[in-house]
Amino acid sequence: MTRVTVWNEFRHEREEERVREQYPEGIHGTIREFLAEAGFGVETATLDEPEHGLTEERLAETDVLLWWGHAAHDEVRDDVVDRVIERVLDGMGFLALHSAHYSKPFKRLLGTSCSLTWREAGERERLWVVEPGHPIADGLPESFTVPDAEMYGERFDIPAPDDLVLLSWFEGGEVFRSGCCYRRGAGKLFYFRPGHETYPIYRQAEVQRVIENAVRWAAPGGGPTPSFENRTEPLEALSDE
Amino acid sequence: MTRVTVWNEFRHEREEERVREQYPEGIHGTIREFLAEAGFGVETATLDEPEHGLTEERLAETDVLLWWGHAAHDEVRDDVVDRVIERVLDGMGFLALHSAHYSKPFKRLLGTSCSLTWREAGERERLWVVEPGHPIADGLPESFTVPDAEMYGERFDIPAPDDLVLLSWFEGGEVFRSGCCYRRGAGKLFYFRPGHETYPIYRQAEVQRVIENAVRWAAPGGGPTPSFENRTEPLEALSDE
Amino acid sequence: MTRVTVWNEFRHEREEERVREQYPEGIHGTIREFLAEAGFGVETATLDEPEHGLTEERLAETDVLLWWGHAAHDEVRDDVVDRVIERVLDGMGFLALHSAHYSKPFKRLLGTSCSLTWREAGERERLWVVEPGHPIADGLPESFTVPDAEMYGERFDIPAPDDLVLLSWFEGGEVFRSGCCYRRGAGKLFYFRPGHETYPIYRQAEVQRVIENAVRWAAPGGGPTPSFENRTEPLEALSDE
Amino acid sequence: MTRVTVWNEFRHEREEERVREQYPEGIHGTIREFLAEAGFGVETATLDEPEHGLTEERLAETDVLLWWGHAAHDEVRDDVVDRVIERVLDGMGFLALHSAHYSKPFKRLLGTSCSLTWREAGERERLWVVEPGHPIADGLPESFTVPDAEMYGERFDIPAPDDLVLLSWFEGGEVFRSGCCYRRGAGKLFYFRPGHETYPIYRQAEVQRVIENAVRWAAPGGGPTPSFENRTEPLEALSDE
Questions:
Q1: Which one of A81, A114, A117 makes the best mutation probe of the D interface by having the most chain D beta carbons within 10 Å?
Q2: What architecture is the B3-218 domain classified under in CATH?
Q3: Would you state the pLDDT for residue C239?
């Protein structure tokens, strides 16, 4: 059973009434619920827990880490970020949701600013599957709509994704690479754009399906552990001279 | 259960004693055996059967098609190739083994000459896993050796692979991109270099493991079927002018 | 000086009054004009010339071939297509414009159906630069608008581009990968979506700029010509056994 | 004229006699010489200069920065690294040479450990051009040899390159992705493996040619500067609800 940890900043839900109404148990609570129903073993962790809930033990028992943050990216301790990145390079999957494009682990794993343009106008977003053969597209329709979305627009300052699965159309004129796959070390990363603290986006079936698919896709494999070493002894005989 | 069809030219085994000794039931027989043991449902098809054994029915019931050909690529009927390609674009996986780099379906799916340099000297090949997080690397060591191999050397005239999983080193001085993944339509393709009619390469555990992993990876997903159509009705209202 | 040949089906302009009004000298005439002004050496060729104007000599003297076709793709002779493809693999650049997504050379070089969804409603298209560091983006604004466009929508059944430079937004709700780079053999390919026989799109400054940039990018380089051969002599000594 | 700055750690040459013999004016001196002969404007900078020679002014006047470091990566100040990265994302080219795979700017731009396996045995390396149509392959032979090289072997823990141009074969049995292109922000990166402080590798014609080609390829373009902003005003009218 794939073991998932859902990490949430968990500030908006405690501080703003309209967010609490959408996600009374926190965004992590909602995500935990549908992932548990999908058959995953799910734990949660939040910013204000000791070590942000991401202890060595918790990470060692995590196959795929989901990350939701927005207003307090800077409060995440660098040593915890180091720990997360080390685990990703070692094989742990990492899903960055919505505003987690600006989270420390995501930015450090990608190496770019991860900047974008945005607009909070509750406009319509339509997501198109551009790679229907990709496992993250399983069970999705050709396109689906998020009725009230915060717009994220290109240029999205990311490295070109290894696989581009979803593209977003926005009512106000923008497009966005909304479902982006990367490999880093032995780990797999997926960025998924939809989601917001004041819209019920994580209750939408297609959005949940994408996240479930991405967890399956990002789960660690059983490939070899590379030896990074001074291999003084050649594998094949060298010529005399 | 993933349904596999192993296609083999099946001429060398009938015409040359030393090939028959290596593969008394044909290369397809050996591959069928280890794939069946790995839990797949496996059928075979060969060049000299009616329609090369690749009838509409056979292909409709195939999730992943393996292809081994060498001396008789030109004898494969174009209408059967059309049928294979249509199925790949529709989601069927396709594994091209060794000299199948020059097979009609592979060349047509890639669009290039698929040429390379070669040498038959029974030299040592060492395969290196360059993408340890890829599912096709599951269970493999960091590198493994094929003791007696036909050399294939770069430049290999293929499009840059979507994922490059394996690189080969050859005793005589060449390198080769030996494990190459592509998406075409809804289908997944994998080219795997090792294999030869007079060496027992398909009996080697690591080689079998790669092929098993690739079958799993290339099995069709459940993504949407795109509508390629004249969509006269816009999804969103157009402005008046 | 980069030598360009602009190939045009050149039927609409002769048969339909409203197309002739847009492009009195043919689409190829308009493209020739602005490319010549940009400093390229430009010739043209059309479907109804002998060998479609694409003789061995013409192709041998072409660095970059532009292709516009729409209603008569099937009338292009296969031997001429073979010739074009051979030159591309040998290093000639190839630009497929708009409905040339369905041209024989483009489909054969990509290996997929190149299908898409479309709508002729004269709606607004907005093109976004997603890779501002790419040479094809030189001199472009962050986004630009084509006021009256035929919509092309995803799923566009192409292999994932090696570089994705432009994305289109359409008023009616669709998105499209509108500027796609590929390498095939030693040649470079660029697909560019905008363009239509009844809209003055090839007179638009940004569209002309993209085409000029793409010609520069796709011009042949001076890399090595691979030897595809039976290299019986190893480059390095083989071990005795 | 493309303006190049060659950065060198410049410790080995001052501390070790055998290195000084190879590079009496420092590795940066040798590289400066052949790049100046190739027509570039070249400055140098070294670790022990104030701000490592990489002041705001120097970087503002640099189109492409070359980086050679080995034993003192950790002594490079983080604020200078920040400055370098900001310039790369803004369009400056960056070439990481040999042991610069472990330099701070390279590791931060790629996001991975950039680890590898190595052996100092003065063995033969053969570099193969796998992408002959790439500008970095201009003027190169199909393959070339570095007679005495330090081995670098896979797994090289990097993200899959956007373009893979060169592969290395080593006498002792290893392979390596030796010429790797990336885009980060508006900037282009190239990693080039050959080079060592005690071998005359930077005096070799093919090695110099690769570096010259890479400088041309990595020079900044003229694409748009993205606006990363809160675009409160939609570009297109939103529906009422």
A1: A117
A2: 3-Layer(aba) Sandwich (3.40)
A3: 85
